[in-house]
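Please decode residue identities from the backbone states below.
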């Protein structure tokens, strides 16, 4: 998506012949918005429509927490035990028609290939490293990476060590914010990251193995399993703008001001009716009278989900790495008592958090219910004690 890429062998002109060992290869145009959006052109050894068997459909059903109150919430995901693989282990915390937010702490590696046929994915790597093998090449990843995988890309994870991911899935496109790009797609000087910080897939590996290969395709709110009689990574060349890439949160260049900057300064991605922001270690507001933590604010038409990754978050008491706060629409939220005073004179912060603001309400899952800290909604009542004044 960010810039033109090409890998492997390509014919000189698009839509012309490419042969391999006496076989005319199958050209596939994989594009967005009909034929008017970004696209990638791939050259396959086998026709990509070929299946050995349609081997079952599992509907994805989110179990909803039947809420009877509208309050601020705190979910503790830190103690969650590993479960499933990098796809089956995604446990949805909250969702609406625009985005689904899931925690994934896998206990095993994927034994199949996967493709999201109905949504773009952004996977924030809180812990872990490894490789995402994809149909267009391998993508190495490490802690702090956002792994951006457009719909249509077949992949599987290969990892080592413990893994913890926050996964965003959207039926709309997840893109670099428009205001960061010029008309040619280059990132502008005021943007908090640059094209050089975007790491596309490495070399293309073409597989010719035959046998039975299982692939699960997410489509129509479910997972359709197919069995192929060839390895799905049968591409000998591709070019275009639709491919996976990573961006590491350490490469985000925080934008600060003399007084407090609101979350749009931290925006990293834009989706359809939501944004994803990165709150990174940075210098704080330098006006002599500045209050360097957020002012009380009402998200009148948005829900604000914050996932705490590392560091100390000065505005919030009682949160820890893996905590999620959800400040829903229509309610003001503010630093807890004593936090503003405590922040005065601070020159920097080591907080690291990932935020998703949605412009339509989020629904919570029964999984989120299990992680709920019911005391959080009342945490603004307490007068600060001397202990509260220590970070
Ligand atoms: Fe907020």
């Amino acid at each position: 998506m960010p810039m033109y890429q090409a890998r492997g062998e390509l014919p000189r002109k698009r839509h012309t012949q490419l042969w391999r060992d006496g076989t005319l290869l199958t050209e596939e145009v994989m594009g967005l918005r009909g034929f008017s959006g970004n696209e990638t052109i791939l050259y396959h050894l086998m026709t990509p429509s070929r299946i050995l068997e349609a081997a079952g459909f599992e509907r994805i059903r989110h179990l909803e927490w039947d809420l009877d109150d509208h309050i601020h919430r705190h979910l503790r995901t830190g103690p969650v035990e590993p479960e499933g693989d990098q796809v089956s282990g995604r446990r949805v915390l909250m969702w609406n028609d625009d985005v689904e937010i899931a925690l994934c702490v896998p206990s095993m590696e994927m034994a199949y290939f996967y493709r999201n046929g109905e949504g773009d994915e952004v996977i924030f790597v809180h812990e872990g490293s490894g490789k995402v093998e994809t149909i267009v090449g391998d993508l190495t990843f490490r802690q702090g990476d956002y792994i951006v995988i457009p719909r249509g890309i077949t992949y599987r994870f290969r990892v080592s060590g413990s893994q913890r991911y926050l996964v965003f899935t959207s039926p709309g496109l997840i893109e670099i914010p428009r205001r960061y790009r010029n008309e040619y797609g280059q990132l502008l000087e005021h943007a908090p990251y640059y094209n050089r910080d975007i790491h596309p897939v490495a070399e293309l590996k073409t597989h010719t193995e035959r046998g039975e290969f299982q692939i699960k395709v997410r489509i129509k709110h479910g997972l359709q399993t197919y069995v192929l009689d060839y390895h799905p990574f049968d591409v000998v060349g591709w070019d275009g703008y639709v491919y996976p890439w990573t961006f590491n949160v350490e490469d985000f260049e925080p934008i600060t001001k003399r007084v407090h900057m609101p979350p749009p300064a931290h925006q990293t991605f834009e989706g359809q009716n939501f944004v994803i922001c990165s709150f990174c270690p940075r210098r704080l507001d330098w006006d002599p009278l500045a209050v360097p933590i957020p002012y009380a604010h009402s998200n009148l038409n948005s829900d604000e989900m914050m996932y705490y990754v590392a560091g100390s978050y000065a505005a919030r008491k009682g949160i820890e790495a893996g905590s999620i706060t959800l400040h829903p629409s229509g309610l003001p939220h503010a630093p807890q008592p004593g936090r503003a005073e405590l922040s005065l004179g601070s020159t920097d912060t080591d907080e690291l958090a990932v935020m998703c603001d949605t412009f339509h309400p989020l629904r919570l899952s029964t999984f989120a219910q299990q992680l709920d800290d019911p005391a959080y909604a009342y945490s603004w009542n307490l007068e600060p004690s001397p202990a509260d004044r220590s970070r």
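Observation: The first strand starts at residue 5 and ends at 8.
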